[in-house]
Amino acid sequence: LKFVSAGLRGEHKVHIAAMLKPIDRTVRSSLQIVAVFLSFGLVGLLTSYVVGGVLAALCGVYFLSVGFERPKPYHFRRITSYAQYAWLGKLSSRAFSAMDTVVLGVFVSSSFIGYYEAAWNLASMLAIFGVAISQALFPEMSQVSSEGDTEQVGDLVTDALSYTGLFLIPGFVGSLLVGDLVLRVYGGEFDQAMSVLVILVVARLVYEYGNQFITGLNALDRPDIAFRVNGVFVITNIVLNVGLVAAMGWIGAAIATGTSAVIATLLAYIKFNRLVSIELPLMEIGNQFSAASGMGIFILTCREVLP
């Protein structure tokens, strides 16, 4: 399924690739519910898992326009030369999403980890638009880069930066003003994670901006530079999490995540800007903050007068 999705994205059919996972989940869940009612047990659950993946992959193959060919030696060389750097990108993403929780497990009680995870889930939900932009624009960036039009890659990264904060910026203002109310959905005691939520939303915002530069570096066929940036992020994230959690508790985990994201984003911007001159969309980002501030004033007023 992942292989077919990658092929579709390479053909610029990102909209079709995006539908495969929902198809997989829908078919899998439906069959698993039926399997449970029919008392098929673990075999039924696992079979449903396989059937869902196979059906989704077949749907993707239908829309693939390229055929299957026997790979040649230079294909393996090119894949190997890219993969030796690209693997750290996955590790970096995993470290960003899980390292703080792992370190928290050593220093704080399980209840605080639950509060922290609730805040993290809310912050991650707001990042969905930036992630979608990165996945959608990468094939286009890669194609224009292979054609030698590196300036167009810079323009596409600028466009990505313009819209990355579309949910996260108002989400930041909202978390400041009503974050405690939203967290109470998980339970009354979860509102104490409000300060963590605010910091994590900022961390997600900065990280997603940095991710656009990383995507641009990979599109320029410079996974070696992206590798170094991701390496700095992983090391910084580990060191800061251990140090700050030990000193400050769960607030330290959020600060460590945000600080490491800032460092990695600045480094990614510097590295990318050396390859391609880029104009930061400060006006567009400023407009989003202005609109979010107007929303914040209205929400603050409502919170003062409404139950």
The dominant shape is globular
First CA to last CA: what distance?
49 Å
Q: Into which percentage range does the β-strand content fall? A: under 5%
Uncertain segments: none
Any idea what the radius of gyration is? 22 Å
Helical proportion?
over 70%
One letter per element, helices H and strands E, the order comes to HHHHHHHHHHHH
Mean pLDDT: 86
Major β-sheet, in short? none
Q: What structural class do you assign from the helix and strand content? A: mainly alpha
Structure description:
The chain has twelve helices and no strands. With 307 residues, the protein is an all-alpha fold. The longest helix is centred in the first third of the chain and has 35 residues.
In short:
The chain is mainly alpha-helical. It contains 12 helices and no strands.
Which helices and strands appear, and what pairs or packs with what?
Elements lengths: L1 H9 L3 H24 L3 H23 L9 H35 L2 H17 L1 H19 L3 H15 L3 H16 L10 H26 L3 H26 L1 H26 L6 H24 L2
Helix pairs in contact: 1-2, 1-3, 2-3, 4-5, 4-10, 4-11, 5-9, 6-7, 6-9, 7-9, 8-9, 8-12, 9-10, 9-11, 10-11
Question: What labels describe this entry?
Answer:
12 helices
